[in-house]
Amino acid sequence: MKKVFLFLFTAFTLTSYSQIELESILEGGVADARALLQGYVEPFPTGFGNGINGGWYSTAKTHKLFGFDIAVIANGASVPSSAETFTFNNADYSNIKLEDSSISSAELPTLFGSQKLDDRPLLTFTDDTGNSISTSSLPGSGLKEAIGYNVVPSAMLQAGIGLFKNTDLIIRYIPEQNDTDYQFSTFGFGIKHDLKQWIPFVKRLPFDVSALVGWNDVKSKFFIDPEDQPTQALEFNTKTFIFQVLASKKLSIFTIYGGVGTTNYKTDVNMLGSYTTSASNTTYTDPISLKYDGSSMKANLGLSIKLLFLNIAAEYATQEYDVFSLRAGFSIR
To answer: Are 181 and 226 a contacting pair, CB within 8 Å?
Structure first.
Protein backbone atom coordinates (compact mmCIF):
# COMPACT_ATOMS: atom_id res chain seq x y z
CA MET A 1 0.00 0.00 0.00
CA LYS A 2 2.89 2.38 0.68
CA LYS A 3 4.11 1.97 -2.90
CA VAL A 4 0.61 2.54 -4.25
CA PHE A 5 0.27 5.85 -2.42
CA LEU A 6 3.79 6.92 -3.35
CA PHE A 7 2.96 6.46 -7.02
CA LEU A 8 -0.45 8.11 -6.82
CA PHE A 9 0.76 11.30 -5.21
CA THR A 10 4.23 11.80 -6.64
CA ALA A 11 2.99 11.19 -10.19
CA PHE A 12 1.05 14.44 -9.92
CA THR A 13 3.23 16.53 -7.64
CA LEU A 14 6.96 15.95 -7.82
CA THR A 15 6.92 14.73 -11.43
CA SER A 16 5.06 17.81 -12.59
CA TYR A 17 7.04 20.28 -10.52
CA SER A 18 10.34 18.76 -11.61
CA GLN A 19 9.70 20.38 -15.00
CA ILE A 20 9.93 23.85 -13.44
CA GLU A 21 11.93 25.59 -10.74
CA LEU A 22 9.59 26.52 -7.92
CA GLU A 23 11.75 29.56 -7.23
CA SER A 24 10.86 30.95 -10.65
CA ILE A 25 7.21 31.52 -9.79
CA LEU A 26 8.29 33.68 -6.82
CA GLU A 27 10.13 36.19 -9.01
CA GLY A 28 7.00 38.35 -9.05
CA GLY A 29 6.43 38.14 -5.29
CA VAL A 30 4.39 35.92 -3.00
CA ALA A 31 0.96 37.43 -3.74
CA ASP A 32 1.28 37.01 -7.50
CA ALA A 33 2.81 33.54 -7.17
CA ARG A 34 -0.12 32.49 -4.97
CA ALA A 35 -2.66 33.80 -7.50
CA LEU A 36 -0.88 32.05 -10.37
CA LEU A 37 -0.63 28.70 -8.58
CA GLN A 38 -4.25 28.87 -7.40
CA GLY A 39 -5.49 28.38 -10.96
CA TYR A 40 -2.63 26.17 -12.11
CA VAL A 41 -2.96 23.54 -9.37
CA GLU A 42 -6.76 23.56 -8.98
CA PRO A 43 -7.67 20.42 -11.01
CA PHE A 44 -5.54 18.20 -8.76
CA PRO A 45 -7.17 18.96 -5.37
CA THR A 46 -10.58 19.08 -7.06
CA GLY A 47 -10.10 15.67 -8.66
CA PHE A 48 -8.58 14.16 -5.55
CA GLY A 49 -11.35 15.53 -3.33
CA ASN A 50 -13.98 14.04 -5.60
CA GLY A 51 -12.11 10.78 -6.10
CA ILE A 52 -11.50 9.66 -2.54
CA ASN A 53 -15.24 9.77 -1.86
CA GLY A 54 -15.70 6.87 -4.26
CA GLY A 55 -16.07 3.18 -3.49
CA TRP A 56 -17.65 3.45 -0.04
CA TYR A 57 -20.05 0.55 -0.68
CA SER A 58 -20.98 -2.20 -3.11
CA THR A 59 -24.46 -2.93 -1.74
CA ALA A 60 -27.15 -1.13 0.20
CA LYS A 61 -27.64 -4.22 2.36
CA THR A 62 -26.05 -3.99 5.79
CA HIS A 63 -24.17 -6.78 7.54
CA LYS A 64 -25.67 -9.08 10.11
CA LEU A 65 -24.33 -8.57 13.63
CA PHE A 66 -20.51 -8.79 13.50
CA GLY A 67 -20.47 -9.61 9.80
CA PHE A 68 -17.57 -7.81 8.17
CA ASP A 69 -15.81 -6.87 4.94
CA ILE A 70 -12.31 -5.73 3.97
CA ALA A 71 -11.64 -4.06 0.63
CA VAL A 72 -9.04 -2.19 -1.42
CA ILE A 73 -10.54 0.64 -3.46
CA ALA A 74 -9.03 2.42 -6.46
CA ASN A 75 -10.63 5.60 -7.84
CA GLY A 76 -9.98 7.71 -10.89
CA ALA A 77 -11.49 11.20 -11.17
CA SER A 78 -11.81 12.36 -14.77
CA VAL A 79 -10.48 15.89 -15.35
CA PRO A 80 -12.79 17.70 -17.81
CA SER A 81 -11.33 19.55 -20.77
CA SER A 82 -12.52 22.84 -19.25
CA ALA A 83 -10.01 22.30 -16.40
CA GLU A 84 -7.04 22.01 -18.75
CA THR A 85 -6.69 25.80 -18.77
CA PHE A 86 -7.38 28.70 -16.44
CA THR A 87 -7.91 32.38 -17.21
CA PHE A 88 -5.03 34.74 -16.50
CA ASN A 89 -6.14 38.37 -16.15
CA ASN A 90 -3.49 41.09 -15.99
CA ALA A 91 -5.69 43.06 -13.61
CA ASP A 92 -5.42 40.31 -10.96
CA TYR A 93 -1.61 40.62 -10.73
CA SER A 94 0.79 43.35 -9.66
CA ASN A 95 4.15 42.09 -10.94
CA ILE A 96 3.31 39.29 -13.37
CA LYS A 97 1.82 40.29 -16.71
CA LEU A 98 1.28 38.87 -20.16
CA GLU A 99 4.24 39.79 -22.32
CA ASP A 100 1.90 40.61 -25.20
CA SER A 101 0.72 44.08 -24.15
CA SER A 102 -2.07 44.05 -26.73
CA ILE A 103 -4.13 41.59 -24.68
CA SER A 104 -5.32 41.80 -21.08
CA SER A 105 -6.17 38.11 -20.51
CA ALA A 106 -5.27 34.68 -21.85
CA GLU A 107 -5.90 30.99 -21.19
CA LEU A 108 -2.89 29.33 -19.53
CA PRO A 109 -2.35 25.57 -19.04
CA THR A 110 -3.20 24.07 -15.67
CA LEU A 111 -1.31 21.15 -14.17
CA PHE A 112 -3.31 18.94 -16.55
CA GLY A 113 -2.92 21.22 -19.57
CA SER A 114 -0.66 21.32 -22.59
CA GLN A 115 3.12 21.14 -22.53
CA LYS A 116 3.50 22.64 -26.01
CA LEU A 117 5.25 26.00 -26.12
CA ASP A 118 2.67 27.30 -28.60
CA ASP A 119 -0.03 26.74 -25.95
CA ARG A 120 1.89 28.53 -23.19
CA PRO A 121 1.74 32.35 -23.54
CA LEU A 122 4.80 34.29 -22.41
CA LEU A 123 4.67 35.99 -19.01
CA THR A 124 6.80 38.87 -17.73
CA PHE A 125 7.87 38.71 -14.08
CA THR A 126 8.99 41.98 -12.45
CA ASP A 127 10.85 41.45 -9.17
CA ASP A 128 11.12 43.87 -6.23
CA THR A 129 14.28 45.43 -7.69
CA GLY A 130 12.54 46.33 -10.95
CA ASN A 131 14.19 43.66 -13.07
CA SER A 132 11.98 41.92 -15.65
CA ILE A 133 12.17 38.31 -16.74
CA SER A 134 10.14 36.80 -19.58
CA THR A 135 9.33 33.10 -19.61
CA SER A 136 6.66 30.74 -20.88
CA SER A 137 3.76 30.00 -18.57
CA LEU A 138 3.96 26.79 -16.56
CA PRO A 139 3.68 23.48 -18.46
CA GLY A 140 1.13 20.73 -17.91
CA SER A 141 2.10 17.39 -16.44
CA GLY A 142 2.08 15.61 -19.81
CA LEU A 143 -0.34 12.94 -18.55
CA LYS A 144 -2.82 13.37 -21.38
CA GLU A 145 -0.05 13.12 -23.96
CA ALA A 146 1.26 9.97 -22.26
CA ILE A 147 -1.96 7.96 -21.76
CA GLY A 148 -4.58 9.84 -23.79
CA TYR A 149 -6.65 11.33 -20.98
CA ASN A 150 -6.38 13.21 -17.69
CA VAL A 151 -7.29 11.46 -14.46
CA VAL A 152 -6.57 12.03 -10.77
CA PRO A 153 -6.09 8.67 -9.04
CA SER A 154 -6.64 7.81 -5.39
CA ALA A 155 -6.81 4.64 -3.30
CA MET A 156 -8.25 3.52 0.01
CA LEU A 157 -8.07 0.55 2.36
CA GLN A 158 -11.45 0.02 4.04
CA ALA A 159 -13.10 -2.31 6.54
CA GLY A 160 -16.70 -2.53 7.69
CA ILE A 161 -18.46 -4.40 10.51
CA GLY A 162 -22.13 -4.99 11.28
CA LEU A 163 -23.46 -3.60 14.56
CA PHE A 164 -26.91 -3.40 16.15
CA LYS A 165 -30.11 -2.28 14.37
CA ASN A 166 -28.79 -3.13 10.89
CA THR A 167 -26.01 -0.57 11.08
CA ASP A 168 -22.51 -0.89 9.61
CA LEU A 169 -19.48 0.95 10.93
CA ILE A 170 -16.97 1.63 8.13
CA ILE A 171 -13.32 2.51 8.81
CA ARG A 172 -10.70 3.81 6.38
CA TYR A 173 -7.24 3.88 7.91
CA ILE A 174 -3.58 3.88 6.97
CA PRO A 175 -1.12 4.81 9.75
CA GLU A 176 1.48 7.48 9.06
CA GLN A 177 4.03 6.27 6.54
CA ASN A 178 7.44 7.95 6.40
CA ASP A 179 10.13 7.77 3.76
CA THR A 180 12.95 10.00 2.53
CA ASP A 181 10.70 11.40 -0.20
CA TYR A 182 7.25 11.47 1.38
CA GLN A 183 4.96 11.22 4.40
CA PHE A 184 1.27 10.35 4.35
CA SER A 185 -1.57 9.05 6.47
CA THR A 186 -5.32 8.66 6.12
CA PHE A 187 -8.26 8.12 8.40
CA GLY A 188 -11.96 8.04 7.68
CA PHE A 189 -15.15 6.54 8.97
CA GLY A 190 -18.70 6.04 7.79
CA ILE A 191 -22.06 4.76 8.93
CA LYS A 192 -24.43 2.77 6.72
CA HIS A 193 -27.90 2.23 8.15
CA ASP A 194 -30.82 0.18 6.83
CA LEU A 195 -33.88 2.39 6.21
CA LYS A 196 -36.41 -0.33 5.30
CA GLN A 197 -36.87 -1.38 8.90
CA TRP A 198 -38.34 2.01 9.83
CA ILE A 199 -40.75 2.68 6.94
CA PRO A 200 -43.70 0.27 6.71
CA PHE A 201 -44.39 0.41 2.96
CA VAL A 202 -40.66 0.33 2.12
CA LYS A 203 -40.28 -2.99 3.99
CA ARG A 204 -42.20 -4.72 1.21
CA LEU A 205 -40.00 -3.45 -1.61
CA PRO A 206 -37.97 -6.20 -3.36
CA PHE A 207 -34.63 -4.42 -2.90
CA ASP A 208 -32.49 -2.98 -0.10
CA VAL A 209 -32.52 0.68 0.89
CA SER A 210 -30.10 2.38 3.29
CA ALA A 211 -28.39 5.69 4.05
CA LEU A 212 -24.65 6.37 4.11
CA VAL A 213 -22.67 9.12 5.83
CA GLY A 214 -18.87 9.17 5.41
CA TRP A 215 -15.86 11.35 6.22
CA ASN A 216 -12.19 11.20 5.08
CA ASP A 217 -9.01 12.94 6.25
CA VAL A 218 -5.89 12.46 4.10
CA LYS A 219 -2.56 14.09 4.99
CA SER A 220 0.48 13.95 2.71
CA LYS A 221 3.83 15.69 2.30
CA PHE A 222 6.36 15.24 -0.50
CA PHE A 223 9.94 16.42 -0.29
CA ILE A 224 11.12 18.02 -3.53
CA ASP A 225 14.88 17.58 -3.13
CA PRO A 226 15.50 15.75 0.17
CA GLU A 227 19.27 15.57 -0.29
CA ASP A 228 20.11 19.16 -1.26
CA GLN A 229 17.02 21.04 0.01
CA PRO A 230 15.60 18.99 2.90
CA THR A 231 13.20 21.73 4.03
CA GLN A 232 11.44 22.08 0.69
CA ALA A 233 8.19 20.15 0.48
CA LEU A 234 4.69 20.19 -0.98
CA GLU A 235 1.95 19.45 1.54
CA PHE A 236 -1.59 18.33 0.68
CA ASN A 237 -4.29 17.96 3.36
CA THR A 238 -7.77 16.90 2.25
CA LYS A 239 -11.01 16.40 4.16
CA THR A 240 -14.19 15.10 2.52
CA PHE A 241 -17.79 14.39 3.46
CA ILE A 242 -20.46 12.32 1.72
CA PHE A 243 -24.15 11.63 2.29
CA GLN A 244 -26.17 9.30 0.07
CA VAL A 245 -29.38 7.29 0.02
CA LEU A 246 -28.56 3.85 -1.40
CA ALA A 247 -30.47 1.07 -3.11
CA SER A 248 -29.38 -2.35 -4.36
CA LYS A 249 -30.83 -5.55 -5.78
CA LYS A 250 -29.16 -8.95 -5.55
CA LEU A 251 -29.52 -11.20 -8.60
CA SER A 252 -27.81 -14.56 -8.03
CA ILE A 253 -24.10 -13.78 -7.68
CA PHE A 254 -24.55 -10.23 -8.99
CA THR A 255 -25.70 -7.09 -7.19
CA ILE A 256 -26.79 -3.90 -8.93
CA TYR A 257 -26.38 -0.90 -6.66
CA GLY A 258 -26.54 2.87 -6.75
CA GLY A 259 -27.06 5.99 -4.73
CA VAL A 260 -27.92 9.70 -4.83
CA GLY A 261 -26.78 12.41 -2.46
CA THR A 262 -24.15 15.06 -1.96
CA THR A 263 -20.36 15.17 -1.63
CA ASN A 264 -17.93 17.90 -0.61
CA TYR A 265 -14.21 18.42 0.05
CA LYS A 266 -11.74 20.92 1.50
CA THR A 267 -8.05 20.84 0.59
CA ASP A 268 -5.05 22.86 1.78
CA VAL A 269 -1.96 22.95 -0.44
CA ASN A 270 1.19 24.37 1.14
CA MET A 271 4.61 25.11 -0.34
CA LEU A 272 7.01 24.61 2.58
CA GLY A 273 10.69 25.41 3.02
CA SER A 274 13.03 28.19 1.92
CA TYR A 275 13.29 29.31 -1.73
CA THR A 276 15.76 31.87 -3.13
CA THR A 277 15.00 33.59 -6.42
CA SER A 278 17.82 33.81 -8.92
CA ALA A 279 17.10 37.32 -10.26
CA SER A 280 16.69 39.32 -7.03
CA ASN A 281 18.33 36.81 -4.66
CA THR A 282 15.31 37.08 -2.35
CA THR A 283 14.60 34.22 0.06
CA TYR A 284 11.03 33.22 0.90
CA THR A 285 10.12 30.76 3.68
CA ASP A 286 6.90 28.72 3.54
CA PRO A 287 5.70 31.15 0.87
CA ILE A 288 2.51 29.62 -0.54
CA SER A 289 -0.69 28.43 1.10
CA LEU A 290 -3.68 27.59 -1.10
CA LYS A 291 -7.18 26.54 -0.15
CA TYR A 292 -9.72 24.71 -2.28
CA ASP A 293 -13.23 23.53 -1.55
CA GLY A 294 -16.22 22.31 -3.49
CA SER A 295 -19.48 20.44 -3.27
CA SER A 296 -21.83 18.81 -5.74
CA MET A 297 -24.68 16.38 -6.11
CA LYS A 298 -23.53 12.80 -6.60
CA ALA A 299 -25.26 9.90 -8.32
CA ASN A 300 -23.54 6.57 -8.92
CA LEU A 301 -24.40 3.19 -10.39
CA GLY A 302 -22.40 0.00 -9.97
CA LEU A 303 -22.27 -3.75 -10.37
CA SER A 304 -20.65 -6.24 -8.01
CA ILE A 305 -20.05 -9.97 -8.26
CA LYS A 306 -19.51 -12.28 -5.31
CA LEU A 307 -17.62 -15.56 -5.63
CA LEU A 308 -17.67 -17.34 -2.26
CA PHE A 309 -16.15 -14.69 0.03
CA LEU A 310 -14.51 -12.65 -2.75
CA ASN A 311 -16.35 -9.53 -3.84
CA ILE A 312 -15.40 -7.44 -6.90
CA ALA A 313 -17.26 -4.28 -7.85
CA ALA A 314 -17.08 -1.43 -10.35
CA GLU A 315 -19.06 1.81 -10.35
CA TYR A 316 -19.34 5.14 -12.15
CA ALA A 317 -20.34 8.35 -10.38
CA THR A 318 -21.47 11.64 -11.88
CA GLN A 319 -20.47 14.66 -9.79
CA GLU A 320 -18.26 17.77 -10.09
CA TYR A 321 -15.54 15.52 -11.57
CA ASP A 322 -16.93 12.15 -12.64
CA VAL A 323 -15.30 9.20 -10.86
CA PHE A 324 -14.77 5.56 -11.82
CA SER A 325 -14.11 3.17 -8.92
CA LEU A 326 -12.91 -0.43 -8.66
CA ARG A 327 -13.22 -2.38 -5.43
CA ALA A 328 -11.93 -5.84 -4.47
CA GLY A 329 -12.15 -7.56 -1.12
CA PHE A 330 -13.72 -10.17 1.13
CA SER A 331 -17.11 -10.10 2.75
CA ILE A 332 -18.77 -12.30 5.35
CA ARG A 333 -22.35 -11.40 6.10
So the answer is: yes
Give the E-state strand segments of the chain in sequence order: 68-78, 85-89, 96-98, 105-109, 122-126, 132-136, 151-163, 167-178, 182-194, 208-225, 229-251, 254-272, 274-276, 283-285, 288-307, 310-318, 323-332
Cβ partners under 8 Å of residue 56, min gap 6: 158, 170, 190, 212, 214, 242, 244
How far, in Å, CA of 83 to CA of 150, rounded? 10
DSSP 185-254: EEEEEEEEEE-GGG-HHHHTSSSEEEEEEEEEEEEEEEEEETTTEEEEEEEEEEEEEEEEEEEEEEETTE
State pLDDT tens for residues 31-48: 999 999 999 999 999 999
Taking the C-alpha atoms of residue 75 and residue 48, their distance in angstroms, rounded to an integer, is: 9
Q: How far is CA 95 from CA 24, 32, 91, 243, in A?
A: 13, 7, 10, 44
CB-based contacts of 332, cutoff 8 Å, min separation 6: 67, 68, 69, 309
The pTM for the full model equals: 0.90
Segment 294-310, tens digit of pLDDT: 999 999 999 999 998 89
First to last CA, the chain: 26
